Amino acid sequence: MLARISGKASGWTRSLAQRPKLAGLALTSLALVLRLPTIDSRPVWYDEAFSVLFSSKGVAAMIEGSRAAEVHPLLYYSLLSGWMSLWGASPSAVRALSLLFGLLTVALAYAIAHRLMSPGQALAAGALVACLPFQVHYAQEARMYSLLTCLLMGTTLAFVMGVQRGAWGAWFAFGVLAAAAMYAHYLALFYLIPLALSALFVRSRRVLLSIAAASLLAVGLFLPWTELLLGQWTRLRQGYWITVPGIEELVRTLLVFGAGLPLPEVVLPVALFLTLLAVAIGLLVTGVAVRQRQPGWERGLWLLGMSGAPVLLMFLVSQLHPVYLERALLPSGAMFALWLGWALVEQPIAPRLRVTAQVGLIGLIAIGLLGFYSYRGFPYAPFETVHRQVAALRQPGEIVLHANKLTALPAAYLDPAQDLHYLVDRPGSGSETLAPSTQRVLGLEADGSVAEAVAGSKGVWLIVFTRELDEYRRLGIDPHPAIAALQVDFQLAEEMVHGELTVQHYRLSGSGSG
Questions:
Q1: Averaged pLDDT for residues 362-371
Q2: Which of 236, 279, 487, 512 would suit a FRET pair with 31, their CA atoms being 20 to 30 Å apart?
Q3: Smallest Cα–Cα separation from 136: which of 181, 173, 105?
């Protein structure tokens, strides 16, 4: 994978590296091969189900749902709405949109590398963006993070072209793409600020004036959304489930950039060691290049800065208001891959050190991809299997009750027409992320209590994540509050466990069944 990892491979990689168009095609093909295996093999989970259900309502309804409710801007949802009108809402169809953005991300990242590095380094850097598990994961998930990364890689390419060529077209593209990235996700700002400020290190009046004009264009294009943004501020201040990050979160993010998560516990120490090894050697190479003023040292240092500055900025802001979200750092992860490509290929370091780093990095990618391909735990679950089984066994007068929205929305995705009940999130809690106005837009309003949900029913099928039951037990609460409320008037008839899901069937006490 990495150029010049062996003499046998150096011939064809050198030939490919010298042909940028062919190299770009090869890298996007590699990315496609790595991203296709799981595009249809995992169930649609809560966040993806929300994306599909929300996007299906149309732009007008989505705007209404965004007023003091859904906290993300609507670019991705609007694109998904149009995409589904063409290709449908199957798992592979809705994820294919993110796959497309993921492939464009690889092409754009390679274009950046091609303008900043030698051909061999650019090929290695592009291969890392194509292969690193963090990039593979979110390029096949029906959420906005693949779009966000694609737009910010496009913004970065425009920045590089503007600095190198001084063309106003590049700076115009910077402004448009930066605004589009903000319409994809507000946390794009944590990448855009360091990117714009890096113009200060170019030491060019022309570049400073250009970046100022491009930034004003981006602000102007985003202004129409600020009214809704202000309305969402109350929701944004809650921070949801996000907590104040500690130093361990930075270490975790580094591991995510390298191997991706989750991973089996048995390989976590190996993955962390290989990540730290690659980073340590990369930092050593960068430090030597800077100290000796080797050709291209400024570019390598800039790539390193764009890998870490958004992470540190988000971390620092999160000490005051928690917004630290690893998947929103996906663009920084792509720059991290470009930096490793620059540092670990064709740099004047001891050959054994270079090969050690490259082999370790390939091992890290293998561990991460195998972990990703094989993972079937939370938040994934056999929602379709449970839905079919309950639908087959459910008797007239019985209802299906979901302990919370995490299982309810995937069920609604599978069968939008079903009579679905789920319990409201505890008001004021960090898990209260589905506002009442958004529930109304979706047509899926939560029940305020178990009693409200089951009133008049002869039986109840309760669906809950098994880990939620375990979490309550660890807190000393057993049984789960929903189960305790059901046991007042109902008796447990049977219980089934399907992977991550527990299904309990209750019948009304005194009904003659037990």
A1: 96
A2: 279
A3: 105
Tell me the C-alpha distance between 297 and 316, whole Å: 27
pLDDT band, residue 433 (cuts 50/70/90): confident
- What CATH number has the domain spanning 383-508? 3.40.50
Let me know: does 347 contact 285? Beta carbons within 8 Å.
Answer: yes
83 Cβ partners below 8 Å, 6+ apart? 93, 94, 96, 97
Residue type, 65: G
Residue 199: pLDDT band (50, 70, 90) is very high
pLDDT, tens digit, 9 for 90 and up, residues 258-312: 999 999 999 999 999 999 999 999 999 999 999 999 999 999 999 999 999 999 9
* pLDDT recorded at residue 169: 96
Dig out the tokens for 498 from the structure: 């399907």
Nearest of 341, 348, 368 to residue 1 by alpha carbon: 341
The alpha helices in 293-329, defined as continuous H runs, are 297-318
Domain residue spans of the chain: 7-40+90-249+296-343, 383-508
Closest residue by Cα to residue 165 from 127, 204, 136, 221: 204
Look up residue 502 and give its two tokens: 């527990």
What lies within 8 Å, CB to CB, of 395 at 6+ separation is 458, 459
Report the sign of the C-alpha dihedral through residues 96, 465, 390, 402, in that order.
negative
* Average pLDDT across the chain, whole number: 91
Task: Return d(Cα 463, Cα 377) in angstroms, integer.
Answer: 16
**Cα–Cα distance, 131 to 316 (Å, whole number):** 30
Rounded to 10 degrees, the C-alpha dihedral 124/125/131/134 comes to 160
For residues 10-29, average pLDDT: 85
DSSP secondary structure string, 227-289? Answer: HHHHHHHHHHHH-TT-----HHHHHHHHHHHHT-S---GGGHHHHHHHHHHHHHHHHHHHHHH
For 401, phi and psi rounded to 5 degrees?
A: -120, 125
State the alpha helices, DSSP H only, in 324-449.
330-344, 351-374, 383-393, 405-414, 436-442
Q: Are 46 and 405 in contact (CB under 8 A)?
A: yes
β-strand pairing of 421-422 with 459-465:
unpaired
Q: What is the DSSP letter of 378?
A: T
Cβ contact 338:248 at 8 Å: no
Strands 398-402 and 459-465: parallel
